[in-house]
Design brief:
14 helices; single chain; alpha+beta; 276 residues
């Protein structure tokens, strides 16, 4: 829901809602007398922010069902890479608007210019506090001060979880670089090998952040491992990667979930870590 601050205050003063602010231009509220009611997310339309731009666009357009759909799609597109509890809802909402998300850029190009401008502005607002990822550095520099206690060498874990004889990421490393990857080399891989790259990265992230720091390698079961792998995949689709690798993971998210929770992949991973 998008509304002005004055309208939000009217809702609060009505006494029918419990409400709270959770960010500068964002609030939540819930009807007091309905314990089963859903929480209402509210974006406040303030001077010069994208929510105000959306309200103005709505008031000035023909207000057709297509206008409404394109506005909703613009809002969803602006936070599709945001790591939040609504990640999957946003993903599947976008599929209803766009269809195959491989064609999302084509969909954006066909939006009215005003909405494309709002999308750019709203993306900046959404990700302004999300640190940018740079791969133009050595491996030691890349993994330094990222808040993770590394028990095992990252590259060694890639060798451990490799689906084929060689980790997939080595197929598209930029010549002479430790972590910087070559888009052209990646695009030359077949679809299955591209999926391997994401699956192996998800497995390493799951082990580094959810298994080894808690010494769970001998006790974790298939169900818990599957949950960790899916969480790692969401991180790849949002905050832990960027650019074309993230786009590929995002576009293929449902297929990758299916591959990651496949018994063969999960059980093989458990056998490997229990031998360590």
């Amino acid at each position: 829901m998008i509304c002005t601050f004055d309208y939000f205050k009217k809702l609060v003063k009505s006494g029918n809602y419990r409400s709270s602010f959770i960010a500068d231009a964002h609030a939540v509220m819930k009807p007091k007398d309905d314990p089963d009611a859903k929480i209402i997310d509210i974006d406040l339309a303030l001077d010069n922010n994208s929510s105000m731009d959306i309200l103005k666009y709505w008031y000035n357009c023909d207000q057709t069902s297509r206008d409404y759909e394109q506005i909703l799609a613009t809002i969803k597109l602006s936070h599709r890479y945001k790591d939040s509890p609504s990640f999957e809802k946003t993903y599947y909402d976008l599929k209803t608007f766009v269809g195959d998300l491989k064609y999302v850029n084509r969909y954006i190009a066909n939006l009215p210019k005003e909405l494309r401008d709002i999308l750019v502005k709203r993306e900046k607002e959404t990700y302004e506090n999300q640190s940018k990822i740079s791969l133009m550095k050595s491996k030691d520099e890349f993994f330094a001060n990222d808040g993770v206690e590394y028990i095992h060498d990252h590259d060694m874990l890639h060798e451990l979880v490799s689906i084929l004889s060689v980790p997939a990421y080595k197929s598209f490393l930029m010549d002479g670089h430790d972590v910087y990857c070559d888009h052209a080399k990646f695009m030359q891989l077949d679809h299955t090998r591209k999926c391997h790259a994401v699956m192996e990265e998800a497995a390493v992230i799951a082990l580094e952040r959810g298994v080894f720091p808690f010494n769970k390698q001998s006790t974790i079961d298939s169900y818990e491992m599957s949950k960790l792998l899916c969480t790692a995949l969401r991180k790849i689709c949002t905050s832990l990667t960027s650019g074309w690798f993230r786009e590929f993971a995002y576009e293929n998210y449902p297929d990758l979930v299916f591959l990651l929770i496949d018994d063969k992949f999960t059980e093989n991973l458990l056998v490997k870590i229990r031998k360590m």
